Batch of 2 targets.
Target 1
Amino acid sequence: MIRFTDASVTAPGEDGGSRTILHPTTLELGEHRISVIGANGSGKSTLLKLINGLTLPTSGGVSVNGLDTARRGREVRRKVGFVFTDPLSQLVMPTGREDVELSLRGRIRRADERRAAGMRVLESYGIGHLADRSIYDLSGGERQLLAIAVVAAVEPAVLVADEPTTLLDLRNEQTIRAVLRALPQQVLFTTHNLSFAQDSDRTLVLDGGRVEFDGDPAEAVAFYQELCLR
Amino acid sequence: MRGHGQLLGLYVPGQSLLHRTPLVLKALLCVGASTPVVLIRQPLATGAGLVLFLLLMTLGARLPLRKVLGALVPALPVLALLALYSGFTRGVEAAFVVPGGIAVCILAARLLTVTTPGQELLDGLVRLVRPLRRLGADPERFALALSIMVRSIPYLVGSLSDLRDAAKARGLQRSPRAVVVPVAVNAVAYAQATGQALAARGLGEHQHGEDDKEDGPDAVGQGRA
């Protein structure tokens, strides 16, 4: 269970004051798949980054399974995997094989076992044949699949994905959606794709740093469309 | 992140003699053969070192000569400057020995990286620094930091090249500030992004001492939406 308790985020403003990125927010997020939609700059990514402590709340608190992200951040980050919009920001090793093995270092000590396990992970995502290819030679879809694979390899209890299909063509988008749909863990994602947003159990609509709607995905999308036309 | 500027090289999968040689032997060979070249500083030793590593790369690791020599291309401007400086200050011999010694070290480092998978190198580093555990060091973190540092070199070289092109496109090729400032900003952004990428997988952080109030990998209020 993810809990936001009056969590807010502010950043220094240009005039020396502060600007609010996320207004005090209280939420309980327990559904298997939760989508977050909203315009650019509405606070979606900040909301997601709060969940694994990549961003800390300025006031209030966020906890995952009872662990406070500010006080137990390291533990929280081992439970909550984060997939970035741009997979090249995610991948830190030159090849997929090395990157997934990096993920597994903390779990599997023996090099040969780690190598075999890394290969199994890549094959389970259908990218085993790309294991030794430079990450720069992969297509956008292959890179995003790899980014999800290297994060999922550490078997986090929660997987958070920030606009995982934004940079992809339709075919790759469908692939990533299918992969996320099949993941057993709780998945939270932001998206600008309203059809993808409805592929969830619950949808939050953010506007100006506030959660303006929280509920059924179809109703949330209708609310968001109306909000955009106002 | 950009992928060019492969000074130290990517692992090239293969079944050559050097690919099959244990890491510790390869490391001893590289250090053992390059150290005398740097210490002796004689043209004969430098020439012998260059020939030895070119033979090791082409015959021992079965890499095409063009690819082997291509590894030195990103370093050529620096090597040329060193040759000029050494030639003027210490004579013709030094103009060959000083850059030649560095070229030998680059080839030796590349020999290791192209014939050894990154994770195997990381494991080797962890073993190497394990004795430091008695002093409170964390070998796993040390090796990870070193491996990320090596990994960041191609990025920074690529970033420099891209920004130089961008400055040229705006007619600012004569302004060092137009290149140096964005390279520095990019380097900091890259370091932050790498830290976040590791944190996103729960990597690179202490396994204990969880109860301390900490700063997140990202400063408060840095989110983008």
Note: Residues 117-205 of chain B form one domain.
Target 2
Amino acid sequence: MHKISILLITLLFSATSLFAKQIEVCATCEIKTIKEAISLADDGDEIIIKAGIYKEHGVILIDKSVKITGIDFPVIDGENKETILSVRADNFSISGLKIINVGQSYTKDFAGILVSRSNHFTIENNILEEVFFGILIEKSHNGIVRNNTVSGSGMNQAGSGNGVHMWHSSKMKVSNNTVFGLRDGIYFEFVKHSEIFDNISYENLRYGLHFMFSNNNEYHDNIFTNNGAGVAVMFSKFVKMKNNQFIDNWGSASYGLLLKEIYDAEIEDNLFSENTIGISVDGSTRINYKRNTFLRNGWAIKIVGACYENDFSKNNFLHNAIDLSYNSKINTNTFNNNYWSDYTGYDLDKDGVGDVPYRPVKLFSYIVHKTPETIVLLRSLFVDIINFSEKVSPVFTPDNLLDNNPLMQRTDDTN
Amino acid sequence: MFKILKYSFYDLMRSRWSYVYFAFYLALGFVLLFLNNDINKAIITLLNIIIVLTPLIGTIFGVMYFYNSKEFTELLLAQPIKRSTIFLGQYLGISISLTLSLVLGLGIPFLIYGLFESSAIFDFGLLLVVGSFLNFIFVALAFNVALSNVNKIKGFGYAILMWLFLAVIYDGLFLISLIVFNEYPLDKYSLFATMFNPIDLSRILILLKLDISALLGYTGAVFKKFFGTNFGLFVSLFVMVLWVVFPVWRINRKLRKKDF
């Protein structure tokens, strides 16, 4: 009985593979355009596009579970007209294509690949160049977007789109993509239970990664460098951010990571290096910051307002101009067991924990918060003197904002 | 003038203080680079030291030398030499010997640690230029103070007060004014205010070169726009030159009327 069922299944599979046909597209083939191939294809077919240049746009794939495979990166040139490839289907895959020249518009979101209302799909190993929007996914679920390279040459924010843009989707996996030269590298809005990992996003006009109203997501092992304003995570709950690198977001309105209205997030093992502001936090509550390294930022952490019950532990604060900027006198956030390179205390019992608490908020950072112009006095002797006097007897800064157990050595981390 | 310059210079060399000063910078440079091999970081630390210490040493040396060599100066005044020649010679003698101590003392360790292979060479150069300017400025200011006060103790007191004012009190007043006039646009004002203090001017010049500019936010943008360009650099170096020229001119003026 068991053997028969196995036999049946193998038969069934071989039968489907028998029925599934391969449609080849090339300049000298019977079928010369992708549009034609798609119109001929049935569920389960594979369309193989051979190397060549295909000047096509407005290609639409609806309700067909087709596998589109490019061989040696066939170029699909949209000639700057409109969306190049639109898909509304389940169980499809798109791989190995080189899609270039997506049309630019101020009213419509033209994309290299537009996926809507689709389930269980894979978009991988594609190269998208000179795009407006790269891969735009809406109202779709269980998709995988990986190993794609998306780039644009946006000059201003209004005239450029996002690399990987997702809207109202869930259970997506975005991994190993390289995204640059766009407005936002990766954009999530109303996306749930998704994962973003091993991506590299750099030199985008606005954000490397932009998160809005997207709960229960995780992003890890991504690298965000040299973006216009860094990474923004806004209005989301239960977000996990681990092992990411936020590097070199340097400019008068730049930060490594912007948190706005974030609740119950975990921020662990990240590296924030040489950003104007490492993390700018606004109205975010119950966040655990653990084992992050803040290296040579202007401000390591700038808390703008209404942030309660956050926990900072085991972080490294190394050579930042200002470690922490805090604006109110009320503090319910806890700092414990961090390493501060500015710490000047001692450790008599040699247990690795300093015997004197550390005050991360300097008087100068308080003043700068009130009057931003005073930053021109940075590194002045006078500032050192007032910082010292405030350290001895805190008047302006919250007196319970201190790290009672500052570490003497930086915590072990791989960064 | 060169003869007098030479005399003052050798006099300082003989008095060993130049050597002590030189040795201090040498040790400082080596220790800094030994503690962290990163030349860029060492330059930031050096900045803090240079903008505080160079003016202080310049002031003290200037005043001390003036009062100590008073008898020799009076002897020279009896000779048929122009007053301005005597004092300018002395002034340049001190300034140059101090500057040499600074440049050599810091230059040698940085050269050994591979300054030329580092991208920081321009920043370091600017740091030395600014340090040298501060030497010239503060020695000149100290001479001014000393010329105006016959009483040694008073002169010393005023000179130290002058240093304290420019290094600390000025910034305090500046800070208070910024806080008080918070409601007004302050970027032009703060640009202006830094020009009036050579220590602030040097600090800002180096900070902007060290890429901290983005930190400065909106004010920083105004500063960067001004100091970041070659034009701004020239203007600020020109202001530094004015800071040297004006006190020296005042020394000359004072000399003409002074009764020794």
Note: Chain A touches chain B at residues 250-252, 254, 276, 298-299, 319, 321, 367, 370-383, 385 (CB under 8 Å).
